[in-house]
Amino acid sequence: MVQVSVKPESFEMVLYDAAVIGEVVAEVAERLGVDEAITLNIDETSPLGRSKILSYDPIDLWVDGGALENTQRPRNFGQARSRDTIGRLLLRILDRRSGRFDDAPADDELDLSQFAAWDVHNVGRLERIGLGGQKKRRLYQFRNRHGFTDTADAAFEELWGSSELSWAEIERISVGCRP
Amino acid sequence: MRKIFPAEELARDSRFIRQSNEQRMGDPRGARIAGGNAGDALAKLTPGLPNGPDRARALMHGIFVGEIQALEGAGRTCWDFELGDEAPLALKLDMARQCWDEARHCEISVVLAEHMGTELGEYAENALLYEAACNPDPVLRLTGVNRALEGLAIDVFNTMKEFGNMAGDPVLEFCEDWMLADEVTHVKMGSDWLRRLTENDKDRLDKALEFQKVVDRLFSFNGFRGEEDDSPIQLTRRFRELAGFTDEEIDEIADMSRDARSEAIT
């Protein structure tokens, strides 16, 4: 079992259980073949859905509390949303470690279009191993960054359906369909 | 069939989860509204925000459940009051026409949810709109719903229309524009009936306007709906004028928002 450290260990503003969160993170990590220790920092004061990687090695993640929330039941933990959030972060780490993303900009230098394109590729892969979905939600985000056109939709399908693209390929597809 | 149907008993299938006003307002992180949160730093809802598309999805879902409740409320107004001085036939006909509009808006909203990648019931439903439609006085009911809440809908639809325009999304832009036109009519109905039914009853008029303020205030916390550049939902003066609001009434809503904003900062 992957060792997961959840911070804080208890919550005041949301009805989350650190042990349950740790189990979900460990489950996602194992499904993705990550077998090292993970630290997850949660800002429970924020209902937004932001997330970022604080450190790639060792793995140190940060999320808004809202990124793990059940949108039907505010303040409650949502497993599906958490799998999506953690899965995208861990796949980004695996991508950068693969050598295929050596030429990718640092995370804080990625623009919204680049993030959207990479996320589509990540969530498509997560869906195929049973860890995520919401394909139409991702399509809407992608269209907002790349245009509401048939060209953008075809680019989306290519990103979603591909198994292991390189950064250069993601960037080519993303740039190629922007208005 | 009974009169004044309670909000707790509205029919919903298992996809919908209700969040009470106490739960919503009692969220220590700030109450959820307009796809964002009252505790967030203010920012106008645009596609350029990192979470802009997701906030638009959440707001659209709020619009969808609002349309269901507006349909239920207008339908109840057709039934809850006796025909005559309490509720003239022309008022009931207006409410029947509004039911037709709201039913169409529900269908449009379902299609828009699909377009934006949102599942029906994906977000919690709050029944504040319908609760305002349970007022036993038809004048207060029309003032609270048609002028306060449908007035808010004017601001929301216009913001969403602009969002669609900025994103280059013609589906969202056109749908919001068409629904916006109906909302202006609904608010105008509320304004007209308020004046007609209280023509010789100053006390009732004052009570109705006070009820409208209470409802408006519920949606003004943190200044989320206002005229500042960073107000998430922009107060729409032109359409409110068309809907029968006076300049003074619009100024009052803008002031209310500014006050709420100041309170949130201090």
Explain the overall architecture.
- The complex is a heterodimer of chains A (179) and B (266).
- With 179 residues, chain A is an alpha/beta fold.
- Chain A has 2 domains: 4-97, no CATH class; 107-177.
- In chain A, 48% of the residues lie in helices and 12% in strands.
- Chain A has 6 helices and 4 strands.
- Chain A has helices at residues 18-32, 79-97, 112-128, 135-146, 150-161, 167-177, and strands at residues 4-7, 38-43, 51-55, 59-64.
- Chain A has a 4-stranded mixed sheet, with helices on one face.
- In chain A, a hairpin with a 3-residue loop joins strand 3 and strand 4 (59-64).
- In chain A, helix 4 packs across helix 5 (150-161) and helix 5 (150-161) runs antiparallel to helix 6.
- Chain A is globular, with a radius of gyration of 16 Å.
- The model of chain A has no long low-confidence stretch (mean pLDDT 97).
- In chain B, helix 2 (52-80) runs antiparallel to helix 3, helix 3 packs antiparallel against helix 6 (170-197) and helix 5 (138-167) runs antiparallel to helix 6.
- Chain B has helices at residues 21-25, 52-80, 89-116, 128-132, 138-167, 170-197, 202-218, 237-242, 247-265, and strands at 32-33, 36-37, 225-226, 233-234.
- Chain B is built from 9 helices and 4 strands.
- Chain B has a single domain (13-31, 43-265), classed as Ferritin (Up-down Bundle).
- By secondary structure, chain B is mostly helical.
- Helices cover 63% and strands 3% of the residues of chain B.
- The longest helix of chain B is centred in the middle third of the chain and has 30 residues, at 138-167.
- The mean pLDDT of chain B is 90.
- Chain B has a two-stranded antiparallel ribbon. A two-stranded parallel ribbon of chain B has the order 3-4.
- At the A-B interface, helix 4 of A face helix 2 and helix 3 of B.
